[in-house]
């Protein structure tokens, strides 16, 4: 198992009248190459859970084990290394650096990889952005920006991709395309993906779908990945 | 290198801010460069004339260190005794003193120097007119002439003597006064130095050997080695102006730090979301700080280059229009200012460091 989460809990303003229990005793397993969807309304604790899984937020209690190593107890510097080497993030609002071109936004996530330019160009080509590589983010459409965001998340060849509402700022068709890209990444490159969303329309690409309410995972459903995913249609990451 | 890429793109992506920052640094650099150049120029100028005189030793009255803090008076008959000392090649009497006189209704000051018959004591460099004054003539420094609006043929009345300007020299302007040159006999007459002189210039075959001989044979006079005497005279600039220049340089440093610091600080605030993204994807605080330092250094270096270009334009204009603007900046001075600029940039980069550390990467997940 790539990721094992046990009784993960996060309080904000603990032991005060304003205490908020954002995540409560969550148990979650994610296997290699598995796409997991966490659905739920706004304020249900999805993003808090994702940021803890991504090593950005320290849990109040519980454990997060990544390849057998506990993330919660890591030193800050070790967490930075963990995010740098093992994780890729896809954000709701893309979060591209506005002064950098598309390819430069991807290159930076490779840190000092020797073949950074070649790899970034290859990723963008596979995501259909070969003609937009030198465009600045403000010159790109929402869908193009999110594809650059996906390329950036893949640049360091991560084991796990954490996607936070990746389709929230996109229209339906573009959102569908973006999910197809993520699906193909998961299937063809055996990347594990956790997608947090409240968009019911995209849940079908997942292997497992969890529903979250008031900080708890209240329900789990099997996804329809096997039905909807046609590996032959994944043209983007052919090796 | 992502750090270099981000730093450069952030700088050139905000061209207006970058121009203002580099411009502010450039003016700060210009100010520091001019102050350092003036200090160096004044220091060199202080000994330009004295250093041009042929002397291994300056013999002065006991207790004399330089020509500004005390007046040296020696009997003229010492000249022959010095000349007969073993190892001494030549001895020349130096007579000169600061004199005040009235010029167009206001008091003026010059350091009147007697030019000996052999021409050993002479102006540093003649700009125009005669190289040596005859009786009733004087050579003034060109800076003094410009200050007082004097021209060739004008008359100066010093201690009741009429002296006609027949030449102008350079390298003799010492800010508080400038050197002027008249015949030695005339200067002696003006200063009432019939049997006295101020210094003797001594040339020797072997300075290290002769110094001991002179000190042994003439225990009642000061035997001042050339280099030490020049340094002591130049120290007048250090003692007088260095503290003032130091304060002005510190102010210029503060301006430079404030300009870069504020610019980098506001840029950091504006880019805090992007810094948060970088933190989230695995950049360390140290790497983010390196981005800021690099931006600050690049702004500083561009500002330094612009400041030098400004100096290249401003200094000649100032030299033409401001008397006493004695600027001299070589590689050493420019190198010093470059190091100062790098320090300014690094110190300024520390201003937003707390801001960077406090950026929470979780914020980037908020839509």
Automatic annotation (TrEMBL), chain A:
Record-level GO cellular component terms: plasma membrane
Residues of the ABC transporter domain: 3-239
Name listed for the protein in its UniProt record: ABC transporter domain-containing protein
GO molecular function: ATP binding; ATP hydrolysis activity; transmembrane transporter activity
Alphabetized Gene3D superfamilies for the sequence: P-loop containing nucleotide triphosphate hydrolases
UniProt entry tagged with the keyword S-adenosyl-L-methionine: no
Nucleotide-binding found in the keyword field: yes
Keywords annotated in UniProt: ATP-binding, Nucleotide-binding, Transport
Organism: Candidatus Terrybacteria bacterium RIFCSPHIGHO2_01_FULL_48_17
UniProtKB/TrEMBL annotation, chain B:
Stretches assigned to the MacB-like periplasmic core domain: 19-207
Domain ABC3 transporter permease C-terminal: start-end pairs: 247-361
Chief place where the protein resides: membrane
Cellular location(s): Cell membrane
Protein name: ABC3 transporter permease protein domain-containing protein
Transmembrane residue ranges: 18-42, 241-267, 288-314, 334-353
InterPro entries the UniProt entry points to: ABC-4/HrtB_transporter, ABC3_permease_C, MacB_PCD
Membrane topology summary: Multi-pass membrane protein
Keywords recorded for this protein, A-Z: Cell membrane, Membrane, Transmembrane, Transmembrane helix, Transport
Record-level GO cellular component terms: plasma membrane
Pfam families membership: FtsX, MacB_PCD
Domain of life: Bacteria
């Amino acid at each position: 198992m790539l990721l094992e989460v046990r009784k993960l809990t996060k309080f904000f303003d603990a032991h005060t009248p304003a205490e908020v229990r954002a995540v409560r005793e969550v148990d979650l397993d994610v296997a290699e190459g598995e796409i997991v969807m966490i659905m739920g309304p706004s304020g249900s604790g999805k993003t808090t859970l994702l940021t803890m899984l991504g090593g950005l937020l320290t849990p109040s209690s519980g454990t997060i084990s990544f390849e057998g190593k506990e993330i919660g107890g890591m030193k800050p510097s070790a967490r930075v290394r963990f995010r740098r080497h093992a994780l890729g993030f896809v954000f709701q609002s893309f979060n591209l650096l506005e002064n950098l071109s598309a390819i430069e936004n991807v290159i930076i996530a490779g840190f000092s990889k020797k073949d950074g330019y070649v790899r970034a160009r290859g990723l963008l080509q596979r995501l259909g952005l070969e003609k937009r590589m030198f465009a600045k983010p403000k010159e790109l459409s929402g869908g193009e920006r999110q594809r650059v965001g996906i390329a950036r998340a893949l640049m360091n060849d991560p084991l796990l991709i954490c996607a936070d509402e990746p389709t929230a700022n996109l229209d339906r068709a573009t959102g569908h395309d973006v999910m197809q890209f993520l699906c193909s990444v998961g299937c063809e490159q055996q990347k594990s993906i956790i997608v947090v969303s409240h968009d019911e329309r995209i849940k079908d690409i997942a292997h497992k779908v969890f529903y979250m309410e008031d900080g708890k995972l209240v329900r789990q459903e099997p996804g329809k990945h096997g039905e909807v995913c046609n590996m032959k249609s994944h043209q983007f990451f052919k090796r | 290198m992502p750090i270099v890429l981000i730093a450069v793109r952030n700088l050139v992506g905000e061209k207006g801010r970058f121009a203002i920052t580099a411009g502010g640094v450039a003016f700060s650099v210009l100010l520091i460069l001019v102050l350092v150049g003036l200090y160096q120029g004044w220091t060199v100028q202080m000994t330009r004339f004295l250093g041009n005189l042929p002397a291994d030793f300056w013999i002065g009255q006991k207790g004399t260190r330089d020509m500004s803090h005390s007046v040296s008076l020696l009997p003229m008959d010492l000249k022959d005794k010095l000349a007969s000392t073993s190892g001494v090649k030549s001895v020349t009497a130096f007579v000169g003193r600061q004199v005040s006189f009235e010029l167009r209704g206001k008091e003026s000051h010059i350091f009147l120097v007697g030019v000996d018959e052999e021409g050993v004591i002479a102006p540093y460099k003649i700009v125009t007119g005669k190289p040596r004054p005859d009786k009733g003539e004087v050579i003034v420094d060109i800076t003094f002439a410009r200050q007082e609006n004097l021209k060739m043929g004008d008359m100066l009345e010093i201690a009741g003597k009429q002296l006609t300007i027949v030449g102008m020299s350079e390298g003799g302007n010492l800010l508080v006064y400038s050197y002027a040159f008249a015949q030695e006999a005339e200067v002696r007459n003006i200063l009432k130095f019939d049997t006295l002189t101020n210094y003797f210039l001594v040339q020797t075959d072997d300075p290290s050997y002769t110094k001991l001989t002179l000190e042994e044979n003439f225990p009642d006079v000061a035997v001042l080695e050339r280099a030490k005497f020049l340094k002591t005279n130049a120290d007048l600039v250090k003692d007088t102006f260095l503290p003032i220049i130091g304060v002005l340089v510190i102010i210029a440093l503060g301006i430079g730090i404030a300009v870069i610091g504020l610019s980098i600080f506001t840029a950091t605030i504006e880019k805090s979301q992007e810094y948060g993204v970088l933190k989230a994807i695995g950049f360390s605080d140290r790497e983010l700080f390196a981005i800021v330092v690099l931006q600050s250094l690049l702004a500083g270096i561009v500002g330094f280059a612009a400041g030098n270009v400004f100096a290249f334009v401003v200094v000649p204009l100032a030299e033409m229009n401001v008397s006493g603007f004695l600027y001299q900046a070589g590689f050493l001075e420019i190198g010093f200012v470059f190091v100062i600029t790098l320090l300014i940039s690094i110190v300024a980069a520390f201003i937003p460091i707390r801001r960077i550390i406090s950026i929470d990467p979780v914020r980037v997940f908020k839509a």
